[in-house]
Task: structure prediction
Amino acid sequence: MAWQKVASLDALHAGEVLGVEVDGTTIALFRIGDEVHATDGICTHAYAALADGFVEGDAIECPLHQALFDIRTGKVLAGPATESLRVYPVKVAAGDVLVELGGTEPAREAPAATAMAPRDGGPKSASPRTGNGAPESPDMTGNGAAITTRQYVWPGNDLTVIPDWVYTDQYVYEREVEKIFHGRTWNYVALEAEVPDAGDFIRSNVGPTPVVVARAEDGSINVVENRCRHRAAEFCRELSGTAKEFVCPYHQWTYDLKGKLIGIPFRRGIAGKGGMPADFKAEEHSLRRLNVTTHRGVVFASYAPNMEPLADYLGPEVLREFEATFDGRKLTVLGHYRHSLPGNWKLYHENLKDPYHATLLHTFLVTFGLLVAGNRSLMLTDKSGRHGVMASAKSDVKSVTSDAKKEMRNFKEGMTLREPRFMDFIEEFDSPWSVTMATIWPNLIVQREMNTLGIRQIVPTGPHEFIMKWTMFGFEGDDEEMTRHRLRQGNLMGPAGFLGLEDNEAIKFVQDGMQRVPDGEHLVKLDPATEAGTADTLISEAAIRAMYKHWRQEMGL
Amino acid sequence: MLDLRQAATNDRRLEALLLHYEVETFNTAYAAALDEQRLTDWVEMFTDDAFYVVISRENADRGMPVGLIYCENKGMIYDRAFALDKTAMFAPRYLRHIIGNLQLLGEDQNGDIRARANYVVLQVLFDRPDAKLHQVGVYHDKFRRVGDVLKLAERRCVYDNLLVDNALCLPV
Result:
């Protein structure tokens, strides 16, 4: 490749960065004393021009997320970037700065899950002095194979627009598994009532990862990965049961209820031949254990070694609503539902942080005058924005203002149920709300819909699908009539629920739309008076914005 | 000379055959009503005190009562039909029931006729109109004569596919 003049030396000042375009490539030029250096001009993290960045000694700081690179070598000095910048050979001749393109490949520090320039006409957040404009910029690796790279550009400067890739991209999903479900989060796994006695176990998941939740002899609850340490078999096959130990069916490797490896058949071989190496240490091959916390009969697990207590994780307001539902009475399990939803798992969180849809989608509520736009309600978020509680109070006032009626197409006056008692609310909880739907990041919904109570656990399988496992419960002390009431009222919820089924359908429509008409955006502009956070109006998307504020921070996107 | 034992056996078998035919005819009409989304007709196939539940095998095996649909009487069955017909939002679809393996299991003390049958519901959505298995299970039934019409006093639909495909939008 030829040397090309890119600038005159006079234009280059020490401590500054100059951006130039050469043959469609953006280059950043630096002067350190008498040395001139050239690197790629676009940050390897997201699509930002380093020419707009800040030189600090021998390093260049990206203006967008403050990634730091060594000017001489291109290496990453500070994240969120993980890939080095390419550097180019430079020479100065007769006052001209020349650069040789097709330069040195920097050492790859991370697998290439990297950048594609935004589609022409698509939203760009970087300054005008960017981009080569090409939809894809192939990178040549050492062995000559071309890999396509992708950039994750967030359109606009705020949270009122969300790009499709948040919901449809495979790399984003894999990063979510790593940084969220396997990160500093508490993940719901079971109710204590599901493993009441020593030896009881139940299969569950943390994110997509299968785990086993077991009650050990000492009464402790243990959560281990459902993967044999020998040759990876998912050893626990029953949905639930009771056992003294876990035996992998393939080679009968045996683990105790805490996951400790206690048995390896023919460990010492037979007649002096074969077997495990003499120095094999079984204690180093126990099932991978997660950290566990329980509160009011609800069991959580985390991959993080040093999680804060659950009370701190939830924050005081969300904790109060959690404790209003789990009020200290012992739980009884009434049954499970399981269904697969063909959408991104975050759409479910959004649905329960979206009070706007309540009277517009769920016409059952409106037709029978059960929820009207004027009801007392609250869409609470915690300080971080990740958790939320959608709350409403059943009002006695049946009259709806005529304005509100006009906005709700489906309001039909005078309709009544033949069996209306299933909509009765029996005062049971110490709470001003008759309904609270809590979204507890990342995988839990706590449903208190009057007297029908449920846990909903999110198990993502990829960007386009998640499984939801429901655990419906009551309390010890419920008499038969109360249990029946909960079951009747349960018709509102679940995969066939009067309210539940419509959300499932809507989520499918959203994912269908994104997959079939790709590379678009979502508008979350309702209620500009609240940037992101708690709102006391139903007509708000502030809670959704709060969730993505948190998400972007955790994901580095 | 008539073989009276043979005649008696034949009578019993004919009676059983006739009952089998009657229940099968009922099930065919039941399937058609749901397939054609004639939910009012579906409601009328139940007695006033009928119990109708759609429940997973997971819950049924463990003696847990929660069902996708849970109706304790005809009033609730009517409300379910009305709500789905008039208020529920869901994508349009075709549904097709196949009911078979019918077994008549005898009579209860109060004269209710116990029966069971396998069922399969296939579903076609329109955005990608391939036919998918939506539900497979067993009907556990109690039939009762109301006048000269056979009606359901109880139908427990116990489904094997614990993982429901998104939503159950219509009764099975």
